[in-house]
């Protein structure tokens, strides 16, 4: 397609255990400062596993006491992160009908859902619905254009960012607030993933529980939080003198059509998704300077993603980072949080290290960054999300100066 609008990232906002601001999150990543600790998922302390909660979170100043009662914790986190992203962007400078919101969530208001089973109050339904975050953000920001929610498990946040880009390209909106949010730290969620064998339930050192691509990995670690980006037509952003963190240049989405929870073992769907995103960005594999991996720390996901990266990039050593070693896995949040991280990698010119990697699984033939951040040249940076259900989503960010 010719004549499509270029898309700028002008605002970033996060709330997660690894940082309440993008700068704090970045500091945690470059210093390999894990947000993971032992966490009690129930009041009685009978379900205790490694997790990455956001401690000390307070929505005061963003939501009134009455509004807080009406919103699930996941939505509270989303409103705060989205508001911060808009402030970082310097506001929304287009008419309300030209604004849009796209949220991604895997679990919606699961805390409210579990708390209300058997004795729901009058606000039970609106607290647990997946689109509650989109409502609260659109109402707060005066968005009368499109307001959508995407739920594709752990790819939700990346799909939200990619679909937001498509809205701008298609002329449906000029500014989109896009991101993901989840707060799934409930006993039922923890027990379910633990019994499925996907989640770390015990380890000698909880801080190092998440170990993507390591031979001693034991699974993923649950996290909570929210992350949002303000996407804007590049020409409009430049016309108003906005600071542009990066440009969003490519988006791919495919399906494995293989298994309800397991990725295709050879990573075929993931490889196709990466190729699609690069083609959409009009970039070649040789130009890519860095890959933000999905990297959950489960054997099936790590191996499939490693094979997919090798299939697309061959023997060329592309620096790979797996942030979930620090942040944990926020499910529907993850892709949006890692989109923020990828934008910061582009802006700062560094690939952050992967924490806790002591012995690379020899079946993962990757150049995983460890120890210290690695300087990367200007060029496209790819962020991957590969989810339960075989949902694959990839986005490409680049320097605003290219």
Keywords:
21% strand, alpha/beta, eleven-stranded mixed β-sheet, single chain
Give a structural overview.
With 402 residues, the chain is of the alpha/beta class. Helices cover 33% and strands 21% of the residues. The chain has 13 helices and 16 strands. The chain has helices at 22-30, 65-70, 73-89, 110-116, 124-128, 132-141, 156-170, 187-195, 234-239, 268-280, 299-313, 324-327, 334-348, and strands at residues 7-16, 37-40, 48-52, 99-104, 147-150, 175-182, 222-223, 225-233, 246-255, 290-292, 319-321, 350-351, 367-368, 374-375, 381-386, 391-398. The strands form three sheets. An eleven-stranded mixed beta sheet has the order 5-4-6-8-1-9-16-15-10-11-13, with helices on both faces. A three-stranded mixed beta sheet has the order 2-3-7, with no helix packed on it. A hairpin with a 4-residue loop joins strand 15 (381-386) and strand 16 (391-398).
